[in-house]
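STRUCTURE REQUEST FORM
Protein name: DUF3820 family protein
Source organism: Ottowia beijingensis
Requested output: structure tokens
Priority: standard
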Amino acid sequence: MPFGKYKGQLIADLPGAYLNWFAQKGFPKGEVGRLLALMHEIDQAGLRRLLDPLRSR
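Status: completed
Returned output:
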């Protein structure tokens, strides 16, 4: 995450409540916003475990 309270953390590690906050307030424009929106969808669907194979690299 390039800014805010969780600056320096991976977007995949952001808490669901923070992603929900962005969903309510609006995602930023650009690639970061698209990634946050995608992570929000993954989180809402309960599919965070799909990212585990990427973490083991």
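Reviewer notes: DSSP finds three helices and no strands in the chain. The radius of gyration is 11 Å.
Form closed.
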